[in-house]
Amino acid sequence: MKMTTSTLARLLLVPLFAACAADRADSEKAAIGSASAEVETTTRTAAPAATSIELISRELLFGNPERAAPKLSPDGKRIAFLAPVNNVLNVWVGPADDFAKATPVTHDVKRGIRAYHWAYDTKHLVYLQDRDGDENWRVYAVDLVKGGVRDLTPFDGVRAEIANISHKRPKEILVGLNKRDANVHDLYRVDIGTGAMKLVAENRDNLAGFTTDDDFNVRIASKINDDGSSEILEPDAKKRGTWKSLMHIPFDDTMATSPIDFSKDGKAMYLLDSRERDTAALYSYDFKSKEKKLIAESSAADVSTFIIHPTEHTVQAVGFDPGRMTWKLLDPKLEADFAAWRSTDDGDLAGANASLDQSKWLLTFVHDQGPTTYYAYDRATKTSKLLFVSQPKLEGAPLAAMQSVTIRSRDGLNLPSYLTLPLDAVALQATKPAKPLPMVLLVHGGPWARDSWGFNRSHQWLANRGYAVLSVNFRGSTGFGKAFVNASKMQWAGTMHDDLLDAVDWAVKEGIADPKRVAIMGGSYGGYATLVGLTFTPEVFAAGVDIVGPSNLATLLATIPPYWAPAKALFTSRVGDIATEEGRAKLAERSPLTKADKIVKPLLIGQGANDPRVKQAESDQIVTAMNAKNIPVTYVVFSDEGHGFKRPENSMAFNAVAEAFLAKHLGGRFEPVGDDFEGSSIVIKNGAELIPGLPKPVAAR
Question: 643 catalytic, yes or no?
């Protein structure tokens, strides 16, 4: 199992919106408090159109899956998966041939476990957990023989990362810790059974990360230069303890170029590389000859995933996602298996997890109109058996199809996008509604991430309530080539926002969206985009829902977590420079906080109190600015959440508020709050009276 610690991807503003909520006809102006702060409310006074489509409950959409994320033990004899215990996700383990006999082996009682791995001794599992969303992860080991859980990294205020797990070191794992220096991670070898720890590599050079082989030898490292370019480094044999550059990665290529593994003999490495091309291709690089050999490429998209043999370290298949996932088979030995897999399920193959000898596999298929399906595959017989469905209660629910569409930006870029329409708004096989609909523009986080085709809980939720839902891979989204990513340089609130506006214009021209009833909603960067929408273009959107979005780019960059320090140059070169007066002035120009008095449409803000990436102060300050101008705003805070809402109780509570908010201002259907606040830490700090149907005790907090 190959991993790296402190990788560039970890250092970026990755979105955590999936677990929270992403994850009306008559306009009426009302003066609120003062003449300088006039807010336009677009409240739907008439009841929404009658529909026979069943209302899908928030609990069904946003509650825990029944089972998810199965993984085979290295010997193929057992299976682990995530499933609730008293409504909290925990790891269960059982026989691979009879998973119904599985029992829980972890006993988390609050946040739930979402990332775990088998140890190669097959006697242990390891998993990560933080405290109330603070992202100071600890690594825990579960003893499957004696029972019990051991905290392998019992350090307060320290962020631990699993760096590598190897079949050659079955009793140990590699762990990265920023214990010595909060800004960087040192590398340690940790005994899974005893917790004994030994330093492997000390990060004294502000390195972004190390990459190790199966013997836990540090082979290469990466470093980000002051100009935003980066270096892939190798140990300098002439100067012990120092590094020399193996290859230079220009600024334009840093987002799509990185090492991923080594050949079995260690003489070559596998490398994702966009240099001298646009899309990132997969290459092998010979350390001695310095030659690169192309393994797989696509002109339509970057390499997005791959299957590498766990012991032979040969690349067996590569996946690309230009709009739907496609696979290129490289290993002829898997040809019959791939053919069998294609006939297994009509969804997109999203993952394939195998035993160490690859005799047994677990296959994951995603769908747009149904939950994820998991199959057990026997390579000897070439047969698949349905293991389980993640959310079986959703089977048969009135779920809508997700269309993959391409929208043209005003300056000629193709924007890969995804559209979901309410079931009762389109005739069979139709791609457009009979008449324009209220629409929610759902903006992904990152921004260096992307939207993809498949089952999207927020899309299904909003479409079921009567809205068209549009997600746009605006410039800066990853996976579509470096030119597309680099077109976003210094364009926060600039052409990145223009792409979103162009998408709205497209939806209006296509007869999909009612221009007077379009809301913008998103988390992380998507929350920032929401605030930009309501401040920079206040007449475009009827309402906005901002989740953990930054309001002031200068304070955002000044308060990034310390362990992002090695990537500071990336933010400086792609977002802005807080170190100079000119840079701060430009950041202020693109900060919604400086234009808070321009807000004239309803706004709902959700925030986690422990968010280490976008501090609560980002939401606090724009709410304070709006209050100073008597501009209404509803502000919801969760004391036990971080960058996004992970506890189902909190996700459903916020979505209940958001659903009532959107129904008021767009005219869609909504499910009463009911008991969706039960067990949640929700506190409505501002504007509870603006949300219809809230329980009085909560509204009074």
Answer: yes
Give the three-state DSSP class for 292. strand
Residue 459 annotated among the catalytic residues of the structure: no
CB count in 10 Å sphere of residue 108: 18
Q: What is the pLDDT of residues 436-473, one digit of tens each?
A: 999 999 999 999 999 999 999 999 999 999 999 999 99
Rounded-to-integer distance, Cα 655 and Cα 691, Å: 12
**Exposed/middle/buried for 624, CB within 10 Å: 0-12, 13-18, 19+?**
middle
CA 569 to chain centroid, in Å, comes to 22
CB 223 within 8 Å of CB 566: yes
Contacts of 629 (CB under 8 A, 6+ apart): 33, 34, 36, 37, 596, 597
Mean pLDDT of 100-107: 96
Please confirm, yes or no, whether 524 is among the known catalytic residues. Answer: yes
CATH 3.40.50.1820 maps onto the chain at 24-53+400-552+591-699
Distances (CA, A) of 315 to 118, 173, 309: 22, 23, 7
Query: In the prediction, which pLDDT does 223 show?
Result: 96
Q: Which of 81, 79, 74 is nearest to 114 (CA)?
A: 81
Evaluate whether 545 touches 567 at the Cβ level (below 8 Å): no
Task: Give me the catalytic one of 117, 444, 497, 643.
Answer: 643
Alpha carbons 140 and 111: distance in angstroms, whole number: 15
| Of residues 399, 486, 485, 504, the one with CA closest to residue 443 | 504
What whole-number distance in Å separates Cα of residue 587 and Cα of residue 584?
A: 5
Segments in 467-567 forming alpha helices (H): 482-486, 495-509, 525-536, 553-558
Instruction: Tell me which architecture the domain covering 24-53+400-552+591-699 has in CATH.
Output: 3-Layer(aba) Sandwich (3.40)
pTM summary value: 0.93
| Long-range contacts of residues 412-416, Cβ cutoff 8 Å, at least 24 apart | 413/475, 413/484, 413/487, 413/499, 415/472, 415/473, 415/474, 415/475, 415/499, 415/502, 415/503, 416/322, 416/323, 416/473, 416/477, 416/480
Q: What is the DSSP string of 296-319?
A: E--SSS-EEEEEE-TTT--EEEEE
Pick the catalytic residue from 611, 651, 676, 681: 611
CB distance 579 to 79 below 8 Å:
no
- pLDDT interval class at 241 (50, 70, 90): confident
Element (H, E) at 209: strand 209-212
- Which residue, among 423, 500, 409, 429, has the nearest Cα to 464 in the 3D structure? 423
Q: By C-alpha distance, which of 248, 250, 316, 310 is closest to 282?
A: 316
Taking the mean position of all CA atoms in its chain, how far away is CA 369? 20
Catalytic residue among 390, 409, 471, 524: 524
Average pLDDT over residues 522-550: 98
Please say if the pLDDT value at position 45 is more than 50: no
Q: 27-34, long-range: CB within 8 Å, 24+ apart, which pairs? A: 27/516, 32/630, 32/631, 32/632, 33/629, 33/630, 34/629, 34/630
Closest by CA to 646, choosing from 16, 162, 164, is 16
